[in-house]
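Researcher: Please translate sequence to structure tokens.
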Amino acid sequence: MPRHARETLLLLFTLVLGAPARADDLVRTIQAVKPSVVGIGTYQRTRSPAVQFVATGFVVGDGRSVITNAHGIPANLDLANMETLGVVIGNRGKVEFRPATVVARDPAHDLAHLRIEGAALPALALGGPADVAEGQSLAFTGFPLGMVLGLHAATHRASLAVIAPIVLPALSSGKLNSRTVSRLSAPAFPIYQLDATAYPGNSGSPVYDPQTGVVHAVINMVLVKGLKESAISTPSGISYAIPVKHVRDLLEQAAP
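Model: Translation complete:
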């Protein structure tokens, strides 16, 4: 057989055999990631239900740090009735609530750093800014419908459609309003647009490499849509994520 024919056959075998391997990578990665994904909510013993879900979060660092979206953290807790902020963990069909404390917030990037009590949980590794590129395959795991269907984390595939600035100028002066002007005055930063649909409960979900589980971004719906898609009432198939660089910066605020 001619050499070029052998090389062509080898390439075909590599492509055919390589695809299932990549799919298997995601199956294994999901199992490794899920124990690090938690619900964010509040607990009040006299309330029904006692636990109210507000967002998704994920564990980093020493296993007691949790990252989520800042907008999901209640501005005020009902302290008179002993309402407590914390994380919700699904453990063999049972729901466990761990109290948590907010140790740092980053309103500009809509991120919050919580510290939980109790035993450390499995932590996810954080990537770097040079680890992502447009077209790259990604996945995110979280609770798209909160606890409506039980505390069962769901995973969605995605690809990085584009890296773009968070703020886009209005096409005409007629589209400017006080909210738009105030947002335009804030510092712009790159965000990741994903070709996948995320839901409100996904806010705070880790966006990670399907093969390694390394986190590259955090799903964010509220902050970004208010800036980039205010003219679109029901966008479909598009989600946004905050680059993990800002998670690293937030964690450094609590470093000794």
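Researcher: Any highlights?
Model: The two ends are 66 Å apart (CA to CA).
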